[in-house]
Specification:
Largest sheet: none
Length: 98
Amino acid sequence: MANKQGSRGSGRGFASMDPQRQREIASQGGRAAHASGNAHEFTSEEARAAGARSHSRQQQQGNANRQQSGNRQQQQQQPGNERTTRPQTSGNKKQQQQ
């Protein structure tokens, strides 16, 4: 069966729609949510608090990642933790024997 939408999959569902039609449907949903009182609107104080929480988490995660990286470097520097590698071979075994 030929697809009328070009390369947009099976031609069914929201994702296969024209982008303009997707915007129209999403806009209708947003208006309905606000009209029924289900949509949450952040106050500037709520938005500021949410941003502060997000940034503090990102900073904590960054510090934790740096600590883990430092621990790995210390472990690698301790005696007995040298990495061993297999010798690299090049070419075919038959060529090496000749």
